[in-house]
Amino acid sequence: MTGCGGSGSARKAHPEFSKYDNEPYADTFSFAASPERTHRAVVEALQRRGAVISVSDSRSGLVTANLHSDGLLPEEEYDQQPVESEEPSAGSVLAAIFGVILFILLLGWLSDGCSTDSSSDSERTRTREREPQYEPPPPPEPAPPVSAANYVVSCTLTPEADSTSVRFAVVRQTIMNGTVTGSTPIQNKYVNYWLRDAILAQLR
């Protein structure tokens, strides 16, 4: 599976996900099949989607798989509240004014002290300018990091009266240059509906 970093570009790389844009979030689906048949369908669906099965226990109803992607799969975007800035207090304003005055006085004192040595400093400056300056070559630019993602998908099967429910839980592992740098549980409706349809296809 391949993808691109970012939600919009990921949808372009996975056009099959666009049909889920208007679907509400859901992570549990019911299938009209026995637990044994549903378990086989879940395993086959994950394998057909390119996932590597790490746990498959039909007795406990647990299936865990790793789904690798070259980028991020489409995910729902959540609005972030802007941080409100606080009004400056009167004390902070007075402190800022006092600091400006001190800076001006210090600058004047430094300029008076440096004026006596200006002739000798300028002579030394001209001497340094005549000397050839060696500039080391700039260091080579570092190679751009290679990012990828590994999605750990856990499927929990629960028998019902005449059906079997399957609940999906997804954890995204961020991989930089082959090393896992972070692990975050996510609510990704695109992966959930995508796997639901794959299971339905195996049950037909």
Number of DSSP strands? 6
Beta content: 25-35%
- Helix percentage range: 25-40%
Summarize model confidence as the mean pLDDT. Answer: 76
What is the overall shape? Answer: elongated
Q: So, CATH architecture of the domain at 7-76 and 145-203?
A: 2-Layer Sandwich
Largest sheet: 6 strands, antiparallel
CATH class of the domain at 7-76 and 145-203, anyone?
Answer: Alpha Beta
What order do the SSEs take from the amino end to the carboxyl end, as H and E? HEHEEHHEEEH
Count of helical regions: 5
Query: Could you list the spans in which at least 5 consecutive residues all have pLDDT below 50?
Result: 1-11, 77-86
What is the radius of gyration?
Answer: 31 Å
What is the CATH topology descriptor of the domain at 7-76 and 145-203? Alpha-D-Glucose-1,6-Bisphosphate, Chain A, domain 4
| Terminus-to-terminus distance | 24 Å
SSE class = alpha+beta
Describe the structure.
- By secondary structure, the protein is α+β, with helices and mostly antiparallel strands.
- The chain has a domain at 7-76 and 145-203: Alpha-D-Glucose-1,6-Bisphosphate, Chain A, domain 4 (2-Layer Sandwich).
- Helices cover 37% and strands 25% of the residues.
- It has helices at residues 7-13, 35-48, 90-115, 118-130, 189-203, and strands at residues 28-31, 52-57, 62-69, 147-159, 164-176, 179-186.
- Strands 1, 2, 3, 4, 5 and 6 form a 6-stranded antiparallel sheet that branches.
- The model is unreliable at 1-11 and 77-86 (pLDDT under 50).
